[in-house]
Amino acid sequence: MSRNDRWIRGLALLILAAPMLVTGPQAGAKALSDVGFFGRWRDGAWDIGSRLSYSHPGLTDMQNAVKAGDYGLAKQRLLDYFRTRPAISAGSFSHPDWPGAVELTPDHIWTLDGGEVYIRTLTIGTAETTVTTDVTSSVTGGRSGFFLMSRYKDPVVAHVHSRSKGSGKPTLRLTFADGSTKSLHPTDDTHIWAGHPGNVYGDKYLLQVSDQGAGPFTAATRKAYLQFDLDGLPEVKKAELTLTARADASKQVMLFGNGESFDEDTRTWSNTVQYTYSWEGDPGGFDWKKPAGADEEYHVQLPRFFFAGPLATAYQRTGDEKHARALIGLMTDFIEDADTYDSDEGAGSYPNSLSVARRVQNWIPAYEILRKSPSLTAEANAEILKAFNRAGMHLQESVQGAPNWKQTQKVTLLHAAVYFPEFRAATGWRGNAVDFLGSQLDDSTYPDGGYWEATDGYARSYASQYVDIALFMRPHGIEFSDATKAKLRKLGRFLMDQTYPNGYGPGYGDGESRDIRSTLRRLGELLGDQELIYVGTSGASGRKPAHTSSLYPDTRVAVSRSGWSRDDSHLRLNIDRGNHSHTDELAVTAYAYGRALLPDMGTYTYSSDLRAQWLRFSTEAHNTIEIDNQAQDSKAPGAITHLVTNPVFDRIGAHTEASGGARHERSVLALHSGLWLVSDRLKPTDGAAHRYEQNWHFGAEAGPALRSGSKAATTAFDGTGPNISVVPADPGQISASLRDGHHAPYMYRVENATYASYVKTAKGGTTFDTLLLPSRGAADPAAAVERLPVSGTSPYRATALSLDLGARGDAVYYKSWSSQPSRSFGPYTYDGKMFYAENGSTGRTIVMVRGTSVERDGQTLVESPAEVADLAVRIGADGTVRIDGTGLTASTDRARAIAIDASHATEVVLNGTQVPFTRDGALIYAAAVA
């Protein structure tokens, strides 16, 4: 045991006795004065107990000063103690980096994460000046725009040439990997003016930049925006932005990268969601609140001190006291302005419990660095420690919000308990946090292991934080129970099953598609789960999962997966609900050949921006059906009724009552060879006509086109790589169009994106049937769907399609929605629930679900004495017949074996094992229903 460990454990034992050594009630949190924090000694006894434990010898001098009533000296002795205290594990910063934290935040200039990323400050002179700046990191980071804002509060106005100016237009010069170059002018540029919030300035020759006065902005504040079109360009190696400008006096202008598309003809101050505000020169500094017009996250991100990590580590790295002074000043400013004693949630709780936890999470490692700084005064140190104590008391009592809120509160409480054993309450904090975290997985996950909040981003961070805290606990002799680890493993499997084959999450709900592999690997290493390790390392280590597709009936999510390599296919269907969910019941996301071809469109912001509202709250923004132009109710009943899995295909069935006008049923046949068929059935609740809109979203760079006749929508992603064709049945019964939407690949970035919309208005029950055909290269223009009449019934009861798959071949598909009598469609007769047959250059495939017999032109293709649950027969051009299905056994007994039309069969493989077969003319016998 190290000297430090012995010191901590010895101190912890003394603290257990602290309540007996320091008598008297502690002061309430709302009156945490010096007396309330240090205690008060009167007439030889403590009539007000201290928040600190005086049982440790290191605090003896401070205790003597308190007994003497000299609180100034007590504060100095407290600082002396913490300056010399051995280091204790402090945890890690929530954000090791933050836009402009070191350069701008000390001057009270604040920007949200990722919305506008600081590049540098430009100097604009009184003479017309041309300034060229390297903006490579911003462009290669996916930002196609720029934002200009005044660095200092002064009355000077900078005038920057716009794209409308005859000369000196803004120019973005790009150098590509092959050495070639290209120069671009903005597609849109403008400025916005707080004093004229409804005015449009997109046609002006000069963009204006100015800021002055107190507060985040005044009527004089003007900000400028530029946007470039980078679609379809090759890999950029270098990017340089050239601006021409002048000012009435020398002017400092900040340049930021910006990832938001806009229209210069409509952008105004009133309709712009802003991410960056300045209190520079304001004696009061930040007010820690949300400025008018800012994104909703402003008033919570700012008090969470995401900038503490960059500032503290800059001080640690350089020893420059300006960084320490800046961070200490920001901490004490927050305490004075916002960490009040009369909050609705109690002292130290501004603005909510999650923000308290994130703030303390960042303050602890910052304090570990700052405690030895000469810039930390005794008074500031005491106020910071009081704030820590108030926050800890709040976090012990607080169990507010969604699962990620509660988890973060208790994780931070445990960190505080370990880092501050000097607090009398630390032992109680520790027990409270460990007990809560050990049991919380019961409340935050469904019985099947799925996460309660309907977003993979929050599920990912929630699981990752459990790994972090488990690793933090081990050196302190704390372990989660086996039951907790088992639940954590189920959550890890849920994340693993949803992950795209390239290791990224599907980005559903209020989240974004991020690489999840490190989280899966760390979970696997913590739990000894080789399958999690395999997926988390892209197969470099661990063991390949024994399954592919998966159903989470409680979470209401199903995933069809062809395998675990990057080029495999993946389709996710959900009816999930919970915090951060979108109105996307029965939506699918689809991935094939290394690309998300039908992605979720993302979130953008939590603001009132119309694009953000559309992405989060409209059903139209998702790959499902919107009824009567109304968003779904995600709290309505619904279920995924089945997932039939087979090595060759999956079949998913689900329904929802989320739209008041009609019940929506969706069935998906997923061929692992790379093809999906989606059948939708709408059952209205009345006899009125209803409008049904089926939408398919491709992302901002897909370049979709709508083909005449078939009304198929095909993508044309730039460069090489996969594309997709969306081919509807019954093109004559629907109106098809390409519509303007939005895509937010990451938070605070939004791009225009075109999507395919298919609309029909009908009375009574109606259907949509759609072929989704991915391709490794260009989309096949020959893909087409023709409806086949089904004997004795309508498409509402049973659907049959003839499919032209272009170069792949041709196929036929049949699905019965309810009963399964023998029915004829085209040349086929079948008596089961679902059937698919494909003919191509590599052979034939036959798929059956819950059937016994299928014929073509009166000739038997498959006939079984007993109903098969699921059956796939692949007949290769080389004569190999592969049979896969549930509950099958090898048999050549013609009385019980399945007859299969395979006249050229030379070998039969049943569920992966070669078996004998017999022949009777064109029919072979090798397997039977067990």
UniProtKB/TrEMBL annotation:
Heparinase II/III-like C-terminal domain residues: 578-724
Naturally occurring in which organism (per UniProt): Nonomuraea ferruginea
One Pfam family per UniProt: CBM96
Keyword field contains Signal: yes
Keywords: Lyase, Periplasm, Secreted, Signal
Spans through the membrane: none
UniProt domain Carbohydrate-binding module family: residue ranges: 181-274
Compartments, record wording: Periplasm; Secreted
Gene3D superfamilies from the UniProt entry: 2.70.98.70, Chondroitin AC/alginate lyase (1.50.10.100)
Full protein name: Heparinase II/III family protein
Residues of the Heparin-sulfate lyase N-terminal domain: 284-521
Top-level taxonomic group: Bacteria
Residues in the signal sequence: 1-29
NCBIfam families in the record: DNRLRE_dom
